[in-house]
Amino acid sequence: MNTKNKFFSKWDLLLIVFLVAGLGIWIGIKQFSPPAAKAVILLDGKVYKVIPLDKNAYYKIYRGDTYLMTVETKPGAIRATYSTNWIFPQTETTQVSVATGWISKEGETIISVPNKIVIYTEGSKERTLYDAMTYQN
Amino acid sequence: MIFTIVVVGGVIGAIFFIKPVPKYYTRYGVELGTNVQITYATSKGNAKQVVDEMFKKFSDYEEIFDPWLVGSELYNLNHSDGKWTKVSPVLLTVIKDSIDFSKLTDGKFDPTVGRLIPLWGFNTDNTRNWHLPSPKEIKDALKHVGYQNVEIRGDEVRLLNGVWLDLNGMMEGYIAQMLVEMAKKNDPNSTGFVDIGGTIGIIGPKNGNEPWIVGIQDPRGNPNQAIAYVKLYSGYVGTSGDYERYIIVDGKRYYHIFDPKTGYSNDYLESVTTVSTRSIYSDGFGVFSMVAGEKAMKEMAQKIGVAYYAINENGQVIKSANWNEYEYKK
Lengths: 137, 330
Description:
The structure holds two protein chains of two kinds.
Chain A: H1 10-32, E1 38-43, E2 46-52, E3 57-63, E4 66-74, E5 77-83, H2 96-99, E6 109-112, E7 117-122, E8 132-134
Antiparallel strand pairs in A: 1-2, 1-7, 3-4, 4-5, 6-7
Chain B: H1 2-17, E1 25-31, E2 34-41, H2 47-65, H3 73-78, E3 85-86, H4 89-104, H5 116-120, H6 135-142, E4 150-153, E5 156-159, H7 168-186, E6 191-196, E7 199-204, E8 212-217, E9 226-232, E10 236-241, E11 246-249, E12 252-255, E13 269-276, H8 279-292, H9 294-304, E14 307-312, E15 317-319, E16 327-328
Antiparallel strand pairs in B: 1-2, 2-6, 3-5, 4-5, 6-7, 7-10, 8-9, 9-16, 10-13, 11-12, 13-14, 14-15
Helix pairs in contact in B: 2-7, 7-8, 8-9
């Protein structure tokens, strides 16, 4: 009686082991590796600074010698804490960039139109449900 | 052995037959006094180069449409002292469309409110300049409002009675359309979208056959907070609202869309989002609705064939009957 299995050979078993191990390693890397999130700051349409979002810190943004904005980071997130286009208290006007608060997902942005600053995150595990946002113009 | 052949064959088959997902290039910027995002993928040429070319166009558009930029085409027209002035085809198109819509809305939408805007300081991004004008200032400015004062003769325009045009009510939609057309000219099968200050034009479906999901900003939330979602394979979506350019004086909110009859903003609606196959309506209909209110909004939507998602002054959601076609639910 021939007991040799025509469908599975020992090489097949080896291939299965490799495939399963490879899949496991890939899933492990995807799931358990720390997110390499970073924030990209654009000023006047050009990359001003790329900040790794791995610690609590503050950064100031300048155009030449002119101070424009302070941003605060914490692991995985960034927010604007102060912008020179400041609130005019008598009219309760809010400052959009500061009012935006923390952003952490891909697809979220902090915009300061007067200062021509755009901040967005990259490499974050989460992204927004939307691809773009419609808002008043 | 057979197993190995099946696996290897499957992998090779997958490599050859699975359609590759388009690689999207996204560029952000601040142009025309607003946030811009273009996301684009093409199999013809380099997506980045095409997007960069699109961004270069913004300085041209600013030279045409910015009514406050000294020397721009629109600035010169507004200061032409009632003389016939030759204008570019692009400017002429937007003026014609704006006047046509003014007639259709019986002046509820009116691009001749230009003199009211600096009165409130809303022509600048500096919030320190935003303020409530005196009733006399508004009354005086209203003497120079009225779309009937715009005359068109061939490629010439004449502004009578000292009116100033402000084309923001349709300009962004029109520019989005021109950029979408530019992208399609490069590659008719290209996909992506153009977002100019929240007015979004679809170049082609996501990954070739999926809708792009567009969030509608919560008018009383933060800029990344969506209150609802739209799914779009083509066409345009835009929003008008009372929540970015506004002041609150003695507890009353005043924002940048003025009723051409009174010179003040109305408090019927917090936000109107419009889906349209025509770019000019994605903005213009919202402006009209903010001025005219719910009943007129419903009637006009049926007349011009747009879908809308609005939030009234009580925070209640109002949707057009055809909104379901576009609504995306989580």
